[in-house]
Amino acid sequence: MYVVFVHLLGANEVNSVNSIGSYFLSFGQYAVDLFFLLSGFILNWVYLQNSTALNWRAYFRARVARICPLYYLTTLLVLPLLLYSFARYGDKHTHLHLNGLIVELVQNLFLVSGIVGGPNSTINEPAWSISVEFFCYLAVFPLWVVIDRAAAGKPFGRLFAVGWVVILCPCLVASYHTANIRILDHHWDGSWLIRGIVGFSIGFWLCSALRSSKKIAETVIVINLFVMSSIVVIGLVVFQIFPKYLILYCFPSLVFFSAFDRDLVATILKHSWFQWLGERSYSIYLLHMLIVPWSNHLHKYKIFSEPVYFIVALPLLLGLLLLIAELSYRYFECPMRSAIRRLGQTKFLVTSGGSGQGSLSGQ
Predict the structure, then answer these.
(1) Quick check: 105 and 363 in contact, CB under 8 A?
(2) pLDDT digit string (tens) for 32-88?
């Protein structure tokens, strides 16, 4: 939702007079880093809770089912807007370039646009992170699983996991200052991929550290202290008292201690409305660029004054987005995910003569 507000409000500079409001909308990239971190954490949480062998066929099928259908649908929906913009204005109002459009279409088709050029090469701009995320599913997660399994049960296991987090957090901060990498005559901006790999890896090792830190769950005071301290530091950053990059150090602490499910924040997030929002967050994230042009149109032609925009137009746009996300989640995202998983299960049962019950677990 923060990214949605950044694109709805930040692009129109409606808070240009309010320095704190404008500064508050300047953390959009950090929100995506939190997304990568949470993703690495959740995959570890889902697939490595026990010592049984991970069913890689089911894992890859589940990742495709989760990511690809909605990614391709939203790309297809945004494409006509892009082509209309090219036809009427050239490349004046788009981050893509007409001369390289065919190449960019191919990059989006094969889910590598975010790796190649971040949002600058992605048709549905927020989806750059999805292609980086998918790369982490295919390459980073399997590597860390092998290393985590090797360290599991060892006396240094917890220290090993914490050590990775300590090493990778400064790397995440440094990734924002990564110089372009020269490949022949091309200068590749690898910072988008590096941020995804590092953020995903931090989340993965946070979860491994959590599994070996069960005793902390008994000390609710300590958990709340770390969670609230992280929130306070983030607040001080927003008010420009602390430098921006400290947020990237707060995220691991906030995620780690919230995961014990014993703090005030976790209690709030258990509310059914937040659960509803979380389940539809993928649809909201990929579909919200469809309503951004409407917001831009309202500002360009000054159809509403700024107070009226915030009181009337913005709630209506957000309501429309949530309605679209609900329809997408209920009638496309979930059915497609289930259909792809069933397809894989059916194929396995046929090839194995019907004795594949164990292979279907953990999906």
Answers:
(1) no
(2) 999 999 999 999 999 998 878 899 999 999 999 999 999 999 999 998 888 888 778
Q: 92-101, 165-174, 228-237: which has the minimum mean pLDDT?
A: 92-101
Question: What is the spatial distance between Cα 196 and Cα 38, in angstroms, rounded to a whole number?
Answer: 11
Measured CA to CA, the distance from residue 15 to residue 182 in angstroms comes to: 38
Alpha-carbon gap, residue 347 to 41, rounded angstroms:
30
Could you tell me if 9 and 25 are in contact, meaning their C-beta atoms sit under 8 angstroms apart? yes
**pLDDT at 344 (0 to 100):** 67
d(CA 141, CA 147): 10
Q: Please report the DSSP string for 42-72 in residue order.
A: HHHHHH-SSSSPP-HHHHHHHHHHHHHHHHH
Q: Which two tokens stand for residue 180?
A: 């372009």
Report d(CA 72, CA 143) in Å as an integer. 27
CB 189 within 8 A of CB 117: yes
Q: Identify the residue whose tokens are 């059916």.
A: 346
Q: From CA 248, how far away is CA 272, in angstroms rounded?
A: 28
**Residues ≥6 apart with Cβ < 8 Å to 308:** none
Helix axes 191-211 and 141-151, enclosed angle (nearest 10): 30
d(CA 274, CA 251): 19
Query: For 63-75, how does the pLDDT look when each residue is reduced to its tens digit (9 = 90+)?
Result: 999 999 999 999 9
Identify residue 148 by its one-letter amino acid code. D
DSSP-derived secondary structure letter, 82: H
Task: Give the pLDDT confidence of 135-180 residue by residue, as tens digits.
Answer: 999 999 999 999 999 887 777 778 899 999 999 999 999 999 888 8
CB proximity list for 241: less than 8 A, separation 6 or greater: none
Question: Do 175 and 198 touch, CB atoms closer than 8 A?
Answer: yes
